């Protein structure tokens, strides 16, 4: 986010709270004439829809975005008229329409590392009976751009677009470990504001994960993101250092003991990330 807030005063009345980030961009852009508030609000309305959340009513969207109901009503009407939302008339709710795929598909299609890594990820998942994922940062979350679960794995099927918390996931801690100190401190500060009192307990675990990555190339998160899931994460960094992503490998705890994660799967996901890292430069 911009540092304009340092020079700003009170937050703008037009403040837009960021979904999945629990902050707003009011003070940052209060005096920026180039910033289009209506567009910002409309995009945050779209972000309120998440995998597994189902259709949303105006009141639910207002609660998620912090926008007034009349504003949400106008935005959802406009988005529906443009084909990005579908109206469920009997329920009075909205859900994403296929036209939204036209916005996201070019990103996936042009992400060559995803295409090139897919077969390697699939092979590793099948050989180990796990799920192998590739993710990029989205605010204070990691969002999957590819995920290849083993055919034998009935659970832990996270699709493209699914997100996990950066602070509580192996993906997120691996990502943080690969950042420069300035950017990492910026995100850690944002997390401190987001988690409040919980950050006192969470921060040491995040820092331990970062230290793990620096020491052996991967970190492990055991039951933090979900109580029954174990995973290892490794950073994926382009050769010029300008692009940072992360990969993970994991499974439910009853299928995957920590020793195997430490001795076999962690090193394998670190090796895979190093192998595909050059592809980020194309």
SS-based class: alpha+beta
Average pLDDT metric: 87
Could you estimate the helical fraction of the residues in percent?
Answer: 40-55%
The ordered string of helix (H) and strand (E) elements is EEHHHHEEHHEEEHHHEEEH
Task: Give short descriptive properties of this protein.
disordered N terminus, 6-stranded antiparallel beta sheet, alpha+beta, 10 helices, Arc Repressor Mutant, subunit A, Beta-Lactamase, 282 residues
Kindly describe this structure.
- The structure is a single chain.
- With 282 residues, this protein is α+β, with helices and mostly antiparallel strands.
- It has 2 domains: 98 residues, Winged helix-like DNA-binding domain superfamily/Winged helix DNA-binding domain (Arc Repressor Mutant, subunit A); 171 residues, 2-Layer Sandwich (Beta-Lactamase), CATH 3.30.450.40.
- The strands form 3 sheets. A 6-stranded antiparallel sheet has the order 7-6-5-10-9-8. Strands 1-2 form a two-stranded antiparallel ribbon. A two-stranded antiparallel ribbon has the order 3-4.
- Strand 8 and strand 9 form a beta hairpin.
- The protein is globular and about 55 Å long.
A few lines on this structure:
By secondary structure, this protein is α+β, with helices and mostly antiparallel strands.
Q: What is the topology?
A:
Elements: E1 17-18, E2 23-24, H1 26-29, H2 37-47, H3 58-65, H4 69-81, E3 85-88, E4 93-96, H5 101-110, H6 112-128, E5 131-138, E6 141-149, E7 163-165, H7 170-178, H8 181-195, H9 199-216, E8 219-222, E9 229-237, E10 244-252, H10 258-276
Antiparallel strand pairs: 1-2, 3-4, 5-6, 5-10, 6-7, 8-9, 9-10
